[in-house]
Queue: 3 jobs
Job 1
Amino acid sequence: MHQSQGIIHKSQCAVLAILRAERFSPNSVAQDKAVMMAVVNRLQGRGCSVQVVSEDALPQGLEPSSFDLVLSMGRLPETLAWLKTLDRPIINNPFGVERCARSILHNLMLREQIPVPPTQGTCGYWLKRGDAAAQTPDDVLFAADEQALQSAIEGFRRRGISDYVVSAHIPGDLVKFYGVLGTGFFRLFYPTDDGQSKFGHEAHNGPAHHYAFSAADLQQTAERLAARVDVAVYGGDAIVRPDGTFCLIDFNDWPSFSRCREEAAEAIVKIETLKY
């Protein structure tokens, strides 16, 4: 029904492009818009007509039949509910976006034996909001010990957040990855090398040591997860331990690709659904 419907064979294609609500782009509003517009520009260059809207202001009475496909960065529940009713190819699949909620994703990763941090450790803990993607710096907190962790959990509860994920802090290199499923596009970056950061959490792992590891294995793991979740445009974070083993600590739908935006846009328009 959605992103795997096949190739669109048309001389022209009508596309609806939905920008993410700003609350889901903390410190990244311009970057998130920029990658969508990079894709839009390429589609327009191929003769597509594209209507760009924000999910914060989806026009009333928008007629789905006037579009051949939908590109969506949307995360609002009402956006996802509307997308689920459409009989159109959609990238990213709204069902997949829902599965990117942290607690749902965490349980899925455990079932699929994707390497994740343990819940117990001796180097501190991470407390992460589980019902949605992080919207503020306070949705992802580091706790130095169990006492600090309990205090952080109480803070979540005072904010009305009862759905959360706890994981042990893993010392090692923090690596960000970006991918577009089925296109061969996969890029790795060390955020402490270039200084780009959303909330500054990279400081807890310190400067990258560039420990040797298998990038091919990380790509295979990330793509297996992307396929299982069913999001074609994805990104995330991994920790590489000194011995070269790794675990995934974050995975999300349609990141900003700020380090490789133009390359990512080229890959996105190569997704099977967008070929015509």
Job 2
Amino acid sequence: MNAFGYHSPARVADAAALRQRHADSTYIAGGQSLLGAMKLGLAAPSDLIDLGNLPGLNAITVQGDLLRIGAMASHAAVAASADIQRLIPALAHLAEGIGDPAVRTRGTLGGSLANNDPAACYPAAVLGLGATVHTDQRDIEGDGFFVGLYETALQPGELITGVSFKVPQRAAYVKFKQPASRFALVGVFVSNGPGGARVAVTGAGACAFRVKAMESALGRAWSADALASVKVPADGLNSDLHASAAYRAHLIGVLARRAVTQAA
């Protein structure tokens, strides 16, 4: 691991100023992915800007028909939140299934989204619930946030401050996990709300994506049977030592039907 400077700002504005001052620096939230990458020599920031002391970034609040979760809220806090369990239990269930207790205690919502691991769970929830990502500079609709492999719409130095999730009428998340890492080989988040049916997939492609054909079918009839004839092509899906693209395409259909049944 390379030598690096360390900073612990007390305000979001101070964090942004530090990031601008140190061009090769990076923010650190829970550090579950970043520190591992640094140990392997895959990342070598000049400075780490710790977001742990920024006030209010771990808050979970209800604002009308929106549930807002601060970027520094841990996976464990999301899983344990009474408001989330009441309003979007599928989101609490998703958080409870991330990693192990140590990862859930340190890992954060904002860190997961900014990293955009192709097998991470939260991106499926952001797309599956039509969420909005808030930063220190703007609001980004979830549908435009995930750009590619480990790529997001964030500009250099832009800091996620929170995410607003629309409360759906029903929702569910089902994933087929890799046993060692508990990342999703494939995960499917479905919901039905004011904006209609949404189906989002993680683990299968370079980043999370929606399946519009499934959404159209569920818009006509919310049932697992409605998805029976919808086939997801394997073209462009991930293929590795854990699962082929064809297998992942098959899993999307299986897990989507399970999620719809669970949500109903």
Job 3
Amino acid sequence: MSSNTPAVARATPTGTLIHKVNAAIARANGIILGKESQIRMSLVCLLTGGHLLIEDIPGVGKTTLAQTLARLLGLSYQRIQFTSDLLPADIIGASIYEQQNAAFRFHPGPIFTQIMLADEVNRATPKTQSALLEAMEEQQVTVDGETRALPRPFFVIATQNPTHQVGTFPLPESQLDRFLMRIELGYPGEQAERNLLKGEDRRVLLHDIEPVLSAHELLDLRKAVGRVHVSDALLDYLQALVKYTRESPRYETGLSPRAALALKHAAQGWALLAEHPGVLPEDLQAVLPGVTGHRLHLKASHESVPMAMLAKELIEAVPIP
């Protein structure tokens, strides 16, 4: 796995890069069995420069997915186990006085990496959770009045236990909104679980993974995502979806302008990997559950509905122009 080597400024044909990403998806699907859609969604999130929240019960492969992505993309990787006594300095780092130099020297924390796994992020206190806000939004951290840039690319994968479990602190809305997508892995299918039981240890398979993409190729792909054409008709559809959430009595609040931009960028990423000439309505519909599931909340008078069902209702309620 590579370290924080700066990305080389040279271009690779986009078609070649997409082929490499699809090869990465196929390789990851051999580690995380039966979860190709979630793997593809995770890579789309990374390619669009966003951050990923995985909410599920322990033991379904959240950490393994993060490690698999880091190895396939040849990126530096750090895992932080979030606990109730974790402090912001444990994440960002701190300036420590060195007696021999009679001066303070900054010791960077584990956040100075390309892929950071914030494991069980909702077990930390809100104060510690907030230490991630600047890093996720600005790709930098500020300590003692000095701003320090984070490596590029910088991608946070946070795992979250269901909020009804003991010892969890709900993520504030401002923190949730920093995640481009939220996904769930869920239990594997029966055949996938049988293959898992009969196959090699996932930790052994992880050590055999060779990088498929380099950091500079990943950055090239991020630029390519931004060049995917978005027609006025597609924007009409996107705005109609957003408007419906703002006017419907089912939701506490509608989707924000930041959420609308997230939908557009994610749909561009999905269209790129599908090699579509521009964003199609089905590209937008494919990313809708991941982008809106943690942003849309039903009013208290309504029943709890899974995010996939919420997205389906939204798609059915808003016709394509």
